[in-house]
Structures are given as C-alpha cells and as structure tokens.
Amino acid sequence: MKKFLFSILFLACSFCWLNAQIAENQLVKIAKFKDNKPAAISYTFDDGMKEHYTRVAPELEKRGFRGTFWVNGNTINRNEPVTTDTTRTNWSELKEMAQRGHEISNHGWSHKNLTKLDDAGVMEEIRKNDSIILVRVGIKPVTYCYAGNAKNDRVIRLASAGRVGTRTFQRSIGSKATDESLEKWVAELIEKGEWGVGMTHGISYGYDYFRRPQVLWNHLDYVKSIENKIWVGTFREVSAYVAERESVRLKIIRKKNRLKIIPSHSPDSKLFDEPLTLVVNTEKKTIKSIRQGRVHLKYRQISPAEIIVDLDPGGKQIIIDYAER
Length: 325
Ligand SMILES: [Zn+2]
What we know:
This protein is an alpha/beta fold. Helix content is 34%, strand content 24%. The chain has helices spanning 2-20, 24-27, 50-62, 91-99, 119-137, 153-160, 179-192, 214-225, 235-247; strands at 28-30, 39-46, 68-71, 103-106, 143-145, 165-167, 171-172, 195-200, 230-232, 250-255, 258-263, 276-281, 287-292, 295-296, 299-303, 306-311, 318-322. Helix 5 (119-137) runs parallel beside helix 6 (153-160) and helix 7 (179-192) packs parallel to helix 8 (214-225). It is globular and about 70 Å long. The structure holds zinc ion. Zinc ion binds at residues 46-47, 107, 111, 147.
C-alpha cells in the first residue's frame, strides 16, 4: 500500500513538473525585426540626385543610419571631369556611398514604365542597369524599384527573379511632409508593428523637393531618439529579414543543460544572408555559452528569462549551454 501511494505521488509530481515546463516550441521565436524592435523603416531615394550624395548620405551617417539609393544608369554622370547633368550624381560618388554602407540599387536603365514594355524590353531595362551598377559600383543590385512606381503582376515577377525584394509600397516623404505628419507615420508603424518604406526624390530642387529640407533632418533626429523601437535598415536588409523570418523553420531540442536550435536552410542562403534575431526563453537558467557551429555568439539579456541573439539562418545548429544547477 505504501509503495502504491508513493507511486501515485511520484506520478503526480512528474505530471506537475511536465505541466510547469514551457513547451519546446515556445522557448524560441524569431523577432519580428532585428534586435527585437517592434517596427522598421527603410529610407529610399530615387533618381540619383546630386544632393543624395552631398546632403542625404552625410545626414544619415551622422545618425548611424544607411539608405537605399535607386539610380538610372543613363542619367548618372561619368566620373570627373565629365559632368553632363549637374543635378545628378556620378559613379565615383555612388561607389563611395556603397563603400560607406549605403545600398545603391536598380531603378531601371532609363526610367521607363515597365508595364508598357514587352518581356524582352523589361529585361533589357533591368539587366543593363544591373550590369553598369556592378561594373561602376562593384555590387550587383538584389532589389528593384519600379520607375514611376508603375507595376503589374508580370513586371513584378520579372523584376523579382534573383532578388530579395522589389519596392511595391512606399510612403512619400517630400514637399508635403511636416514634422507632425512624419511623427504620426512613425507612431503608426510602431503601433501596428510594421515596416515603413520612405520614398524621397529632390531635397532642395527636383521632383517633389522639400520646401524646408530641415523637415527631413528633424525626422531623422526624432527616429534616432526612439531608436530602441525602430530598426532603420536598407531596403535590402529589411526585405531579406522579412522573407527569411517568414520562411525559416526552427527545430528545438531541449536537454538538461543544453538547448539545440536547428534552422532549416533558406531557399537561397547566399542571397538571403541577413542575420535573424532570435528571442530565447532561458527559463531563468544561467548561460555558459551560445555558439552556432564553431562561432561564439554574443547575446543580450532583455528580461530575467529572455535573451536575444543574432544567428545566420542558413548556418549550422545553434547550441546554448547552461550552467549546471
Ligand atoms: Zn524615379
């Protein structure tokens, strides 16, 4: 009888213990955006204007931000001393911007409306610009922006092949923008947990230029001041992150003092190579180390039972070792 009661007690305790444990698939999740920030913004600048080099890039950099600059190869000036259009930038300036971390990408060779071209015409407009950007800037574009935002299913399919994303939505930031309207936009992004894509052309001249460019710099200051809530990334970075977040699957294996996280490989891990932020429930255990393959990963505690850590989604398994207890 005593033995029987003991067994019942043992079973009941095991049951409680199992119940108290968090299910394995609840231990780890991929953060909506990098660093577990609730929203993201990409600042994009169209048409290769000179002021994107002289004013925008330095202002972004001052605040630690990087932008995406969509250019048309046929209007970019050849390098000094040949300047045929003083309102546009030149290739050496674009190359310098790319080297400083900005994304220089494809807006079509000659700003044609792709929906009015046949498939061969669309591909010529895209490929010719890819090639010149690769040759002059040194990086092949992996995103695309439709000239005049003119698009349909056919051109989106053609332009998306081999890319992490194309610009299919945007928020105009230009002549009509005010400090208040931009603050409201940011508040909505945070509230809804969304990715906003700003679209800007002229700064003090050109299409849709600002009557007071200070509006843009004030906005960047504001976003900087709430940086813990907004990830400012290039269009390439955020596009890749979102696509990977949606496609990567994680297998979780829990052992006594170890948690193994095995990411499924993304469809094209060379193209989609943006690190993903994982939020891990450590069940308040003390971490000894976190590594992916042989690489030790840095992590950050965000609450008593949670850490965040960046991982390569196309990489090896992640092993979290806890201290004995
Ligand atoms: Zn344009």
